[in-house]
Amino acid sequence: MKPTTALMTAALLATFAVSGCSTVEYVEVTPRCTPPSEPALPVIDRGELWDALGDARYRVLERYINVLWSYADEQAAMLGELCDDAPADGLSAG
């Protein structure tokens, strides 16, 4: 065994011994069962926006908006799975 490897192993073992990682602590996590609000996007004519931005910048903006919507949908679906009584779309049941 090389001296550097032995030194690094000793340092790693000492770090774990001092850090107190030998005990396990359980923390209860309760999610807020309210889905995030939907992204508030302005209503803009797509043709005018495309004319103003050009094709490349319009595609970048379009991808950004799609990512916002997919994030909101993913969070709502995840909360729907975690919270049994809350619907995934955030609307009241009934």
Secondary structure: elements and pairs:
Blueprint: H1 3-19, H2 46-53, H3 55-82
Describe the protein in words.
By secondary structure, the protein is mainly alpha-helical. The chain has one domain (3-82). 56% of the residues lie in helices and 0% in strands. The chain contains 3 helices and no strands. The protein starts with a helix and ends in a 12-residue tail after the last helix.
| SS-derived structural category | mainly alpha
Low-confidence stretches: 90-94
Distance between the termini: 69 Å
Main sheet characteristics: none
SSE order in H/E notation? HHH
Mean pLDDT: 74
In total, how many beta strands?
A: 0
Number of helices: 3
Helix content: 55-70%
Query: Any idea what the radius of gyration is?
Result: 25 Å
Strand fraction equals under 5%
- Categorize the overall geometry: elongated
- Domain tally: 1
Provide the descriptors you would attach to this structure in a database record.
disordered C terminus, mainly alpha, 94 residues
Short note summarizing the structure:
The protein has 94 residues and is an all-alpha fold. It has one domain.
